[in-house]
Structures are given as structure tokens and as C-alpha cells.
Amino acid sequence: MEIEIILLLIIVPALIVWIYKTIQQIKLKKEIKRLKEHLHTKMEIDAEGNARLKAELEDLKKQNENLRITNHTLQNKPGRRELLLLHIYDKAVNELIAKNPSVAPAWEDLYQKAEQELHEIESGFKAYVSRMFRKSPSAELSSATRQLLDREKDKGSGE
């Protein structure tokens, strides 16, 4: 009988521990299954997001390439360089007038003379002659640039 009690004292707690561990194992398997489902759902959502981002990236790359081509085309349009040079001249003249107020009256006089000459060219005999012997606008601007630089050199060396 003593052996039976000792066996009972050993078997009962072992049986209780075994039942407890089995219940824990079942709970852990359910938790693992739930986490796998959650991970699967998360990966599906991420895959959809990544696909959408890749599509958006490709679209942006196409837009970037189109804009680059458009920008290149617009910069190479006829007259673009002349407009840029005119913008530079305008900025330089405005700064020159702002820094040297005594230049303003002479500039206004020269500006009016040039405007009047251009009007005469467009409407009269000068128009016919100038059309026959027309220079390119870039050649006219480059000679004007040379004259302006020569004047600046003369002023700089005279001081």
C-alpha cells in the first residue's frame, strides 16, 4: 500500500503537470496560427503597397523623362539664346542705372534713338534695305556686347 501511495503521489502531480503543459501547447499552437495569419495579411497589404509605389515610381520616371525632353526642346528653341541675352542686358542696364544715376539720361536718349530707328526700319525704305542685307540677331547682339565691353575697358584703364 505504501508503494501505491508513493506511486500515486508521483503519478498525480506528473499527470497534472502533463495536462497543464498539453493545454499550454494547444494555446501556443493557436497563438502561432493566429500570428501566421496576421503575418500573411500584413505581407499581402505590404505587397499591394509596394506594387502601387512601384507603379507610381515608374509613372514619375516617365514624367521626369518627358519634362527633361520638353525642357531640352524649349531651351533649344530659336530665339531662346537671344531672349536670355536680352534679359542679361536688361539686368545689367538696370544695375548700371541704379549705381550710376548720371548714366540714366544718356541711356534714355540712346534708347529713344534706337527705338525710332527700329520704327523707321520697319516702316520705310530702311526696311527694304535692311531686309536685303539682314544680319542675324545673334551677330548684332554679339557686336553690341563687344562695344559695351570695349567701353568698360576704356573707362577702367582711364581711371
Protein model, in words:
- The protein is mainly alpha-helical.
- It has 2 domains: 1-77; 80-158, no CATH class.
- It has helices at 2-75, 80-99, 103-123, 125-132, 137-158.
- Helix 3 crosses helix 4.
- The chain is rod-shaped and about 140 Å long.
- The model has no long low-confidence stretch (mean pLDDT 81).
Ordered list of secondary-structure elements with their pairings:
Blueprint: H1 2-75, H2 80-99, H3 103-123, H4 125-132, H5 137-158
Helix pairs in contact: 3-4
| Strands, count | 0
Overall, the morphology is rod-shaped
Task: Give the proportion of residues in helices.
Answer: over 70%
Rounded to the nearest angstrom, the radius of gyration is: 44 Å
* Uncertain spans: none
Mean pLDDT across the residues is 81
The secondary-structure element order is: HHHHH
Q: From the structure provided, what is the oligomeric state, counting identical versus distinct chains?
A: single chain
Number of helices: 5
What is the domain tally? 2
Q: How much strand?
A: under 5%
The largest sheet is:
none
Helix/strand class = mainly alpha
Give the terminus-to-terminus CA distance: 130 Å
Briefly characterize the structure.
By secondary structure, the protein is mainly alpha-helical. It is 91% helix and 0% strand.
Tags for this model:
159 residues, mainly alpha, 2 domains
